[in-house]
Please model this.
Amino acid sequence: MPDAPTTTEIPEETKDTKSRGALTALALMGVLAVAISWIAGTKVEWGLFLGPLHVVVLHLPLVLLLLVAVLEVAWWRHGGEELRRIILWLMQLSVASTLLTVGLGIFLSRQGGYDAQLVQTHRNYGLGVMWISVIALALLTWANHLENLRLRYGFRATLAGILVLLVMVGHSGGTLTHGSQFFLKNAPPFLQSWLGKSPVVLSSDEKSRFTRDIWPILEARCLKCHGPEKQKGDLRVDNRESLLAGGDSEKPALVPGDPASSLLIQRILLAENHDDVMPTKGKGRVTKEEAMKLIEWIQDGAQFTKATTKEKE
Ligand code: HEC
Model:
């Protein structure tokens, strides 16, 4: 491995002011990271407007951090003062945009409508990326300042860690917005089984049953409040996993093979003026025939044949 080049010909004075600038930038981002971690622990609520920006802004740190990694490899091979400065500058931008992304993400998570467990996982990975990038920037700043190669290796190690975390944060984020079946549901069966998910093979009768008998009921009676737009009680009816997991009560809304234990059935069978009846009071009623169809469908295993509405963006 060729030695990283050392700086020559930088007048002491300019170098000092540069390092000071870099140190200030680092300190600033450290403070911001503490502030964001603090916000993450409180209940500030003004993110309905800011939150959705998260999904746009997140591409910035992603691209920047990848670029830093590529340029760091280039610098390791070829050296160059110019490149060294660009890397530091890009790393500062990366950390700044990571901070912004994490801050916005925290606001977005407050909006609800997402699987709480997944949000938690995604948030932890996000905070992980944030803190490790701050540490990486600190190592880089000091490596430049002291022209210390060992600190530089430390920077590279943290950078590698960041790349791994980026994959994890991206995966959990994708699962949050698109559902874990986003890619798999349309994959060829051999791919599904190879990836560990046994493909569901349905008789054509079972297939048409959901679309013919069940979906129209859910769509007409429940979707308005439990679909892509609203998730009352933190429940969606257009998604088998959400029904299996249940909503706020954390009781499964759907227990395949056991209609009596399925909250969905319990709640639609309540008296018309009961506080908990579904649809809610005055918002329509599931007819006896419809209830029978739902009960039989659950009795027979409650097959969903396809995702019927668009996922929430
Ligand atoms: C007008 C809006 C509205 C409609 C339509 C509606 N719901 Fe709800 N649903 C709610 C609200 C609000 C809650 C949360 C409060 C509660 O649990 O009563 C809820 C909660 C639930 C829960 C409990 C979730 C949990 O785990 O706490 C189930 C199950 C449910 N709905 C099923 C249905 C089904 C099935 C339909 C269609 C037949 C339906 N809902 C139609 C508004 C609605």
Observations:
- The chain is about 60% helix and 0% strand.
- Residues 221-222, 224-226, 232-233, 235, 237, 246-249, 251, 253, 263-264, 267-268, 276, 278-280, 283, 286 surround heme C (CB under 6 Å).
